Write the structure tokens for this entry.
Amino acid sequence: MSDSRADETDDERRKRGMSPDPILPGQKPPKITVPKPVAISFWLWILAGVVLVAGQIALLVLKDELTEGILKQIRENPVPGQPADPAQVASGVNTLLWMLFGGALTFAVLFALFAYKAREGTRSARTVLTVGAVFLVLVELLILRGSLNVFLLVSTLLVAIALVLMYLPSVADHFPKVGRTLP
């Protein structure tokens, strides 16, 4: 490396598609200049994860009302040859709600982790967040289309805004495209 490039900042190296200089033991990591839209996006991803988990906690709190509503629908529209066992319905609702809570918690942790990495300028983290956002929208539209879960709607809106902020032209230099060379 020539002397003119030895004193480059990590931001300058990233713009050229290079990784930041390694941090040696005892050295402090250099300060990364995070564009304002990316910083806002980071906090929106965190907030979206919190809202998602809060929504699942709300559903767990309302578990008895949900179970009663499902049992009422089963009684009103019975399936011939399949009696409604309230204990089985309650167990199924309980299992489903805990699985959804685990999924929401997983999404929240992944959103936080990859939003942090995207704030550092990692392009692949932005891609992972994009896939997560698409998955969240598909879950809402295809699986939970009949429910009016306000928490899920708010979380999806926050994710959409956060995603748009990460793809603005003004932040393109923060996510450099690394060229690949074949050996």
Q: What stands out?
A: The chain has seven helices and no strands.
